[in-house]
Amino acid sequence: MASSTVETLQSVIQPYKHGFVTEIENERAPKGLNEDTVRFISAKKGEPEWLLEWRLKAFRYWRDRMLPEGDPTWARVSYPKIDFQDAYYYSAPKTKAAPKSLDEVDPELLKTYEKLGIPLKEQERLQGIAVDAVFDSVSVATTYKAKLGEMGIVFCSFSEAVKSHPELVRRYLGSVVPYSDNFYATLNSAVFSDGSFVYIPPGVRCPMELSTYFRINAAETGQFERTLIVADKGSYVSYLEGCTAPMRDENQLHAAVVELVALDDATIKYSTVQNWYPGDENGKGGIYNFVTKRGACRGANSKISWTQVETGSAITWKYPSCILQGDNSVGEFYSVAVTNNRQQADTGTKMIHMGKNTRSTIVSKGISAGHGQQTYRGLVRVSPKAEGARNHTQCDSLLIGDKCGAHTVPYVEVKNRSAKVEHEATTSKISDDQLFYCRQRGLSAEDSVSMIVNGFCREVLKELPMEFAVEAQKLLGISLEGSVG
Amino acid sequence: MLEIKNLHVEVDGKEILHGIDLSLAAGEVHAVMGPNGSGKSTLAYVLAGRDGYAVTKGEILFQGKDLAAMSPEERAREGVFLGFQYPVEIPGVSGLSFLKAAVNEVRKHRGIKELDAMEFLKFVRAKLKMLEMGDDLLKRPINVGFSGGEKKRVEVLQMAVLEPRLAIMDETDSGLDIDALKIVSSGINALRGLDRSMLVITHYQRLLGYVVPDKVHILSGGRIVRSGGKELALELEEKGYAVLGADAA
Ligand SMILES: Nc1ncnc2c1ncn2[C@@H]1O[C@H](COP(=O)(O)OP(=O)(O)OP(=O)(O)O)[C@@H](O)[C@H]1O
Ligand SMILES: [Mg+2]
């Protein structure tokens, strides 16, 4: 890359836009992690006995079977050892009781969401998106609840669902990601604080996008949300997830679990625009995003589609996956991941084909700039009974500058001879020719990069719901500003 | 409009242009001809401000301003347009969205209201009509999989849409079939006007039969070795670059 281009780009480095902290009184569990912490959290939430037992089972499994081995090291990411005793596991904005309507929500919190461009009060009045706002792991407001309720749709915070729909939660919690699944999922099972719950009854097409907006605010606090979405027979839901955090010098752990269950003929579309604080240009601070997301296409003809735009976090470790159990079920994974400065991402998907004629599509677009390091890690497994399974994987990497890296690690295990599995991979660079072409037409250097990158990601961005696609496009531009070097 | 004085240009430490003088008045069309490797594209690139093309001596004045001091995008917004000899592919970016962004950058710079999607579409449709083109090419990612001729036609369309003050066309005629050449030429002629100048780089008299230049310059070995009226192109066509004598590359 010619040097004057580098300078132009470096001159426009933009600071992270969501890096403010909200002054609000918090209630925390004592620092550290032991059985008492787990009991404290469960008691705070007034949970039933079975849930506490489940948490404790997870905690003991984690403490006795996992912690001695340490956290997983197979991913291509590096970070100093995490001291799990030196963190808070529960932090909640102090309020008397759970707010019944937006009018009871702390105005400071509402202001925070307005600053982030999510005015909850507006959202409630305008048509379109129902929002569950999760602030430091606690759901503060869910809009449109009444309207959805008329259709039998449940959309509320996880802790609320435990109270209002215990039978559903009990039936599906841990049914896709068991408590013993992996280091961070197990930790989450023990200490998760809140998250969102969605249930769509049979034959219902959810009339609006459901959205959860996660905001980390408190310092030194691990974030453990848990989301559970169940789409009953013949139903449809599109769910969006957005995330931001303040700028802090120390790293913060975010270990969420998302479980999706699609029954016969049901479709779940799950979209994420992840913009956690990525740390500064030298790699100081930022979120460690160690997340387990998995969907089960449990019924015949069901479909689960993951779309993710990952621009933030210091480290991303994330593999939204589909277990294709039902015959003719479909799994999709569309991903854009950006690593700039010192960001690291090891991300991809798993498609586990079990039913007959199951199909999966993987489109992964990785963009690395600065010293960013990125790995696509994907597994396609076709079990012996998955007659006629099909997979197509497309994995493209775009490099900006010469200090970043892109790696592709595909695992393919095929145990049925009728299966067809295809894998394509490309690596390219933004060329000086492309940049000059755009600038010659009047676009600034940074707008040119942003336009070329958006073009590179088009196949994925077009999978996002409209409102999100626009936000994602802007975000891609911002994450890469000052990136060439 | 454009005043080039004793221009020396280096690429990768090697001098390619050795003192070019050229003066292009408002409303004029000049042709630049010359053998392969004589420096025609280099001249085009340096006018458009491509990185790595260093002006080591001399100056370029555009509407009285020092062009060499501006970034490529500033030049574009000031009204310098380069029709590329080899237009580059940008996967996933539709011609329409690309051009809309470009047009609005120029409008912003000139202090005119930006066009929204509908207004832009209307504006582009008129230009397409003038060039007897459909909008199918513009819906595709720009230049991706375009034939050589299609790329050139889209370059001319971009020029028409951006309405530059100085249009530099680097071998825009190469790769066009006879019919396309006629259409493109009449498009270029329609864009001729008192406030627009053009520098047309070509190897062929053919184009100049349609787009009649006010002057013809012959570039050879990084120097303008002859300048003359439109007859010079004809003479060249007959006799080849031998007409230049020992200087020819
Ligand atoms: N990076 C470079 N390093 C060294 N020489 C270069 C470089 N770029 C261009 N040149 C040389 O500069 C000379 C002029 O090239 P230019 O592309 O301007 O020619 P041209 O007149 O446009 O030719 P054509 O008719 O083939 O398009 C050529 O000899 C070319 O090899
Ligand atoms: Mg040339």
CA(first)-CA(last) distance of chain A = 7 Å
What's the mean pLDDT score of chain B? Answer: 92
Number of E strands of chain A: 23
Helix content of chain A: 10-25%
Question: Could you name the CATH homologous superfamily of chain B?
Answer: P-loop containing nucleotide triphosphate hydrolases
Major sheet of chain A: 11 strands, mixed
Amount of beta strand of chain B: 25-35%
Largest sheet of chain B: 6 strands, mixed
CATH topology value of chain B: Rossmann fold
- Tell me, rounded to a whole number, the average pLDDT of chain A: 81
- Topology order of chain B in helix (H) and strand (E) letters: EEEHEEHEHHHHEHEHEEH
Q: Which structural class best describes the helix and strand composition of chain A?
A: alpha/beta
Rg result of chain B: 18 Å
* Uncertain residue ranges of chain A: 1-15, 123-127
Shape of chain B: globular
Question: Which oligomeric form is depicted?
Answer: heterodimer
- What is the number of helices of chain B? 9
Which molecules are bound in this entry? adenosine-5'-triphosphate, magnesium ion
The side-by-side strand order for the widest beta sheet of chain B comes to 6-7-8-3-9-10
Give the class of chain B from helix and strand content and strand pairing. alpha/beta
Share of β-strand residues of chain A:
25-35%
Describe the structure.
The complex is a heterodimer of chains A (485) and B (249). With 485 residues, chain A is of the alpha/beta class. Residues 1-15 and 123-127 of chain A have low confidence and may be disordered. Chain A is built from 13 helices and 23 strands. Chain B is of the alpha/beta class and 249 residues long. Chain B is 38% helix and 26% strand. In chain B, strand 9 and strand 10 form a beta hairpin. Chain B is globular. The interface between A and B is medium-sized, with 28 and 30 residues. Bound molecules: adenosine-5'-triphosphate and magnesium ion. The site of magnesium ion has 4 residues of chain B, from helix 1.
